[in-house]
Amino acid sequence: MTTSPVAHGLDEVADEAVAHRQAIHGGHFPDGESAGEIDRLGRWYASLGQLTALHARIADNLADLRDPKGMGRPLGASAAAALAIAAAAAIVLGVLSAALSR
User: What is the pTM of this model?
Assistant: First the structure.
């Protein structure tokens, strides 16, 4: 199992896939091949739970503001993502509470 270099756009992903398939597999698609998005910590988004994936996407986007080509995630980005999710949940609960109390 290997991991391709980080790609920063769909064109780069497609180019990497074509080059790999030509060089290693003679243009064929190997059985069991999988491709997908990983977060800055190297975890597959598809394997994460919904709340964890939401946190990872927000934190990754916040980290990308500072260093779009880096891996890893600054603690500040992770904390800001958690705060954003908590704030959104508090707003939803407040709105629902107000609507149900009428």
Answer: 0.62
